[in-house]
Amino acid sequence: MFRGTARARRAALAGLAAGCVVMVGAGAPSASASRYIEQSPGYSCDSRQVRVSPPKVGADRTEAAVWSIYVQRSDGSQWYTYSVSSYYAAFDFYGRNNSGWSVFNTNVGGRFINSRMNIPVYHSGYYRVYSAVATNNQSAGAWISPSYCYMY
Question: Tell me, what's the pLDDT at 113?
């Protein structure tokens, strides 16, 4: 259970690092270096789904990336992990996703529709989203805006 931002960040980056190790070990394509990671620009809550915009990764050649989305829900006094989902994709020099997002390891699958990852939520309440992205040589993670939203 995540209680604080630093703890959530450490857990997210540890999970991404493990995912990258598995990808490299499984023979996923590697690049000489990713040039940049552009974090997800935001998310919205509606129709019993958290809709998260995807990140971008630019690389010297095709680069594999793992994207993990941590959705937290508030019980009024603290935030706790509601769902964790991870996906992988390949990006080119210009930051374009060449492969589409595929499920890597998830307890709640999301569907990529209309340029957003749609993650189902089944309870009313306040939600917030932490997005973490890792490549072979970089990782980035952040709470994305808005700081929280309410699902009816």
Answer: 83
Q: How many domains does the chain have?
A: 1
**73 Rama sector, left if φ>0, alpha if ψ -120 to 50, beta otherwise:** beta
Domain of 61, CATH number, reads 2.60.40
Integer angstrom CA distances of residue 75 from 46, 48, 79, 81: 19, 17, 7, 11
- Look up the pTM and report it: 0.77
Kindly report which listed range (13-27, 59-73, 129-143) carries the lowest average pLDDT score: 13-27
Residue recorded with tokens 């620009």? 41
CA-CA distance, 82 to 77, in Å (whole number)? 15
